[in-house]
């Protein structure tokens, strides 16, 4: 009987033997190139006029591309949060010749009473470099008292290709920006694709004293359609695409919403055609749909590369 | 040659051959039941005494094969593939871990650990789980208890010249009054085979190691406990018809069985088994430098199950009531490597962690209406549950498809057999459902190199429903027998791949994407004719003719349907010498299906010869056999050879079997 028991034990252990090769940890696979940490953390904090202003951004860093920004204002003396401030802000980039440029941004900062913070956004089109230095101009009015703040900031390269952006001149000669907002961390799935589409408003007024917001005005493109054709550019994937994608249309919040299906992890190109509300193509070309194994997929004129 | 050493070691153990009658006592009944299980047909064919499991199954009229190389043929029962039949080992469910069907269940056993194969056609096989085509149950060897300690064993060795196949197989059994231990071990290795034009078929080599162990302990006069384990490893297996080979496939198949017999009352026996099996399967394309993309495609399949069975008998009524439950998890991954290996690899699941749980209750009854008439009836009711862990993959093609799905799978059949003098007749009907397979329901970009499409599973597929008619008629006397078998299946919501206008291929060889969809119906007709004649006492003739026709709802041909095929064999026995010859072939496959990548397969005829000699070697019964297959070295491929790969050309074989 002892032998018998022993043999049963051996069989049991053999049965439990682990596999020769380990299975892929899918969650780890998805976060291999894109971290899934998307917490708002303090990106900057400064004192002015007896107030402390905190700026929060995702992971506490400002990146090239779309940045959602959150502000808190506290009266330093009473340590009370200020909820009735009127804030405008203007990001300015200076190139090597000290020429000033801006980027799409929410000039009027609004107060979000449900979440108790002021919110805005900025779509940085350049990362900080020797020929590109960024600063914020804040104008804050609290109880009829206005003060301005100038704050230097650093824009880091975008580490997450899923939040890439592109800037281009449309067929109408205007300057446009498309910035990806979501999915931040895509998976092999149907992903809701959110993008911001902006346009530079050519100034009509004369240049006033710097910083003159009318010279640096951007607006959301209204009622356009962003046609989507996602493809894998990798030669061995032969211009592979995915089914059931939805073109992006504008939502109530001004952003553009659509659906992108990623059929596997890796490099993808989102080929776009931007069409204005009256049906004119602002930018973008159709890409070939043929399956061409061994040939790198052709990218359209308007596209953003992603990787996950 | 580690395996050979082990084999030889086993053989040097001193063995005593004893087959005397044992005195009667209360264990007699137990033995009787177990002995009947071992006296069934041996695992050998008319041509060869030492065969692989595939070769053995191929000798059955009901089974044909899709062949992707020299190894692990996919059995088709009634011209239906693995999804539509259940293949079990002693009733245990095992599911292959390969999305490309490189590993049917039959590839995880070896002929020397099997006692017999039970093939049940249609719904009569539903007691082993929901099926359309029927069930193939591989019965493993089970040595009965004996009154006196008793050793038995056998050793087989042989080689086949064409593909330099060598095999060594040994099995040994010890039985005593209350303890049985048995084991088997086998190792085969083969190189590439050559076709009828003497061209070597690249990537057709294989190596297979298989061992099994069984231990039984008699817990009382009328009860016993038995544990079994099979361990199978296939390594470096080529699949010439596929764009990939196999690096390693490993299976561990374990079970524990408790049997209780009853001397009085209607319940005669109760049989309960719990089992566990795990399969891992790793494909390899590094042997194919011509491939544009390097891919890793590992797969895993793990199954737990329970089987409990009551055997009832009263007067002329026999019944078997069975509860059958299992849980399977199937996982298959694919990782594609970009041409620039420093870039990110591309990953997806071909089987996104799909769980299948099944529980079924079934009954098989037979009632002897008279001396000549027997009524068989039964049925089962099963519940089948599927869960896809990473359902996101399925949502890409089927947005919003449910992550979980429960299906009820009923089955009913009845049949009547009547003997009229030397004639016998039978007629039967059946009705049954089956759930879609893991690939059909949840597969994701599974590349089919036959029609060159990527296949996508649909979680919302309806159950496939079969309505079946079968009939047979036979005549036999002392010298002559003739039998006809027909069956007809009307299969509603027949599951098959249809081109999707969505998406684009993922595998570089692929030309498009097909999704599993349901046809309104398909029909299948199978016919076979068997005859035997004893020309003289020593000279026997055997002949078979088989035909099948499968049509979809548009009267188009279904794929992999066997054309008219025939086999005729002669066996001559003269004392210790035996000679046999067979001639078999298919007619031209007129009814092929271009939609599924088939083309017209020409007719072929194959002639085989063998001779054997039985003698005593040190008092042990020894058989030596030599023979030749495809004697005329015909170049051919059959209707079910994947990608028309040619079959083996002329092959000489020799084998030796020693029984202790
Ligand atoms: Cu495989």
Describe this protein's structure.
By secondary structure, chain A is mostly beta strands. Chain A folds into 2 domains: 174 residues, Sandwich (Immunoglobulin-like), CATH 2.60.40; 117 residues, Sandwich (Immunoglobulin-like). Chain A contains 2 helices and 22 strands. In chain A, the strands form 3 sheets. In chain A, strands 1, 2, 4, 5, 6, 7, 8, 9, 10 and 11 form a 10-stranded antiparallel beta sheet that branches. In chain A, strands 13, 14, 15, 16, 17, 18, 19, 20, 21 and 22 form a 10-stranded antiparallel beta sheet that branches. In chain A, strand 10 and strand 11 form a beta hairpin. The longest helix of chain A is centred in the N-terminal third of the chain and has 15 residues. Chain A is globular and about 65 Å long. The model of chain A has no long low-confidence stretch (mean pLDDT 88). Chain B has 660 residues and is mainly beta. Chain B has a single domain, classed as Beta Barrel (Maltoporin, Chain A). In chain B, 6% of the residues lie in helices and 56% in strands. Chain B contains 5 helices and 31 strands. In chain B, the strands form 3 sheets. Chain B has a 22-stranded antiparallel barrel. A 4-stranded mixed beta sheet of chain B has the order 4-3-6-5, with no helix packed on it. In chain B, strand 11 and strand 12 form a beta hairpin. Chain B is globular and about 65 Å long. The relative contact order of chain B is 0.12. Chains A and B meet through helix 1 of A and strand 10, strand 11, strand 12, strand 13 and strand 16 of B. Bound molecules: copper (II) ion (CU). Copper (II) ion binds next to strand 13 of chain B.
